Prior knowledge:
Blueprint: H1 16-19, E1 25-31, E2 34-40, E3 43-48, E4 51-56, H2 62-70, E5 72-77, H3 83-90, H4 99-102, E6 107-108, E7 117-118, E8 123-131, H5 135-138, E9 140-150, E10 160-164, E11 167-170
Antiparallel strand pairs: 1-2, 1-5, 3-4, 4-9, 5-8, 6-7, 8-9, 10-11
Amino acid sequence: xxxxxxxxxxxxxxxxxxxxxxxxxxxxxxxxxxxxxxxxxxxxxxxxxxxxxxxxxxxxxxxxxxxxxxxxxxxxxxxxxxxxxxxxxxxxxxxxxxxxxxxxxxxxxxxxxxxxxxxxxxxxxxxxxxxxxxxxxxxxxxxxxxxxxxxxxxxxxxxxxxxxxxxxxxxxxxxxxxxxxxxxxx
Length: 186
């Protein structure tokens, strides 16, 4: 069925609600004996092997300095049941509180990074800063995932995706068509 849409002008600074690709993540970092967590939605997969993720972290954010100095972090994927924690972490600063203690989160030990994993999250990806050349101009880190930890169940976690304006979308119905793909595109 072909659908045609009537469109109207839309403010360009609001288009993120249509383009945000992946789930909200909690980024944990560690530097000079201090641990921190931030909520992040602005990131993109850049390559598969090595596994590269590009992410935007505004320069005044406490985590920006911690990741820049330490050269590492962990990207943790929370599920819907953690939405209050996700919002609370995003509305607070690690300069003033210990977010692990404040939100009752458990630190896990990474294999390749000092930054803690968040045990309550569905998945945790240990990352090293691969390229920092875009930090000064764009606050854009390029991270290499050096170790991935993923829960075996559920197969499809209920993740939350930020749509802007305080609105989230929850991952929903899944459809699968692997037989329609070329093997190298799966």
